[in-house]
Design goal:
Two copies of one chain form a homodimer. By secondary structure, chain A is α/β, with parallel strands linked by helices. Chain A folds into two domains: 140 residues, NAD(P)-binding Rossmann-like Domain (Rossmann fold); 151 residues, Dihydrodipicolinate Reductase, domain 2. Helices cover 30% and strands 20% of the residues of chain A. Chain A has nine helices and 13 strands. In chain A, the strands form two sheets. The first copy, chain A, has a seven-stranded mixed β-sheet with strand order 3-4-2-1-5-6-7, with helices on both faces. Chain A is globular. Chains A, B: One of its GO terms (biological process) is amino acid biosynthetic process.
Amino acid sequence: MGDRPTLAVVGVTGAVGSVALQFLSQHADVWGEIRLLDAAPDDAGGELVVRGEVTPVLPLTGAAFDGVDVALFLVSDRLSAQWAPVAVERGAVVVDRSAVFRLDPDVPLVVPELNPEAVRARPRSIVASPGCATLSMIVAMGALDRAFGLRELVVSSYQAASAVDGPDGADQGGVFALREQLSLVAGTDLGTRPGDVRRAVGDATGPFPAPLALNVVPWTGPLQGQRDGWSAEELAIRAETRKVLGRPDLRIVATCVQVPVITAHSMSVHACFEQEVTVERAHEVLATSPGVVLFDNPGAGEFPTPADVVGTDPTWVGRVRRAPDDPRALELFICGDDLRKGGALNAVQIAEAVAAELS
Amino acid sequence: MGDRPTLAVVGVTGAVGSVALQFLSQHADVWGEIRLLDAAPDDAGGELVVRGEVTPVLPLTGAAFDGVDVALFLVSDRLSAQWAPVAVERGAVVVDRSAVFRLDPDVPLVVPELNPEAVRARPRSIVASPGCATLSMIVAMGALDRAFGLRELVVSSYQAASAVDGPDGADQGGVFALREQLSLVAGTDLGTRPGDVRRAVGDATGPFPAPLALNVVPWTGPLQGQRDGWSAEELAIRAETRKVLGRPDLRIVATCVQVPVITAHSMSVHACFEQEVTVERAHEVLATSPGVVLFDNPGAGEFPTPADVVGTDPTWVGRVRRAPDDPRALELFICGDDLRKGGALNAVQIAEAVAAELS
């Protein structure tokens, strides 16, 4: 026990935090003490169960990081920006899930299935985890990149509400808003006349820029950070994918669209490779890649959907097709749980990789 | 009156048929007699209002086409295959909305904003209208093709339920199934655990191969006609777009995805052109193209969504962006009502173009 590193989990009361505690309870146990920290004043002072032990939730303070080897941050950009440097100053390696440090050249951006060795070079003692949209497809695309050499990606997303905070920053605010909207439209004949859904939803749009029930909304995330018409999240998918794959010149564009799904993101991906590919070879690569499940037999009803993959860990890949007029291009449809691999799981995996390297 | 051509509308009791009667009542009146025909025994013998006049609905027989100049078919593939040749034999020009004749080399496939002149060359006396998925984006893409020369299209769709018949072929069966599913999931906490939506929806999937409420389903249309993993609808978008644009070598791939929206299809489009494009030039072209509305100012909440465009006639285009690493590529998000331009409107426009050319 004494040799094993101490982990602090920062942000344990949100949806991602509670999933993280599940993983820490289920995975091979590499940790000595696990210390639970939270900034939400209602919850600090409470207790949560991790590894079967009732564990106090302590308030987020500088002293709370004393003796901590690895600090896993599962909080907002604002809290990460404020507290990650404090944890580093107190001697911890920070594993951060927020967007704050992802593109910092002195911070590695890690997906353990693809670039686990990157955790070692961390001049700021911070390791970052990509955003949920990038994570929903990158394990599969990284596997195909290794096999065939990616040249270009065109991505259109079908993103769930669970990745969206409330307008006031409330955890899972997107889910609450979508559920309220679904109750307003169920049992009606809405969706057939101009503006009828918008009128029925009224000011219950929540964090979304338009009604989401009976609709799809081609803008995700805040207006801040947009550039030349691209949303910050579309630009982030581009920059994060390039960084994780170590391909700073990869051609990649994304269109991010919110859909009325509670949890699990989907991506329609057009991928061009350096060399010719076949569906059979792509199937072989995907079927043997860690963290990926190939589920591709439409005739038997086998293709991934968010409602089917929610609550599971892998990246699910189906609808693999080769472009009829381009033997170097594939189309794929990919689904992954944005709270698990897209949220808590990748960050926990990074923390475990840091622990292995510390001991 | 005597000089004006006689129109028969075949299939007047379905959703597309009733929208067609609205257009025939609102557009400049080019018709002499408008004869209403229907194969559904319950409805034949009834009456419907067109151009403000109560008009009998006659049963579909060979004799019903006597004296008809233009026969507008808004029925299933099966009925079109059976009855279109009968109407031609009786002397009518058939305008057909079904999939039966679309790719016949002796049948022009027409989008009046793009290739109205094609109605003239009709060796079989049949003119076809494209499918709703193709029609939801082709007016905009055709305008950009003329301006910049299309080289390649990558399309991911977000398709509404209203284009989907019931498992028994019932008109609007997709809408009924989606509404039932929405009632089953509203007010629940479904969508967070593996398979919970599938269990709740049970056998209420209707015509869809998986639950559609709280989900997206990466397969549209029947299993028949699939090839190398491509659905028949994905192949149809490819073939129809090439034929309408007169570009048999256009590189085009589509991924068709069903979303829980009642009416109006959306498309995320990646378009590569022969020459450099800018967002400003694309805006100019789109803003001045007939049948297209440019709606592109995300900072002001302006982007098309299906719930906002339902019940309107044009093709709505927003989210126009230039690829950062390809000055010849644009991304766009396009919405259109699958029952209007995607269904009745294009067919009525074709019939009107034939009428103009007959008189």
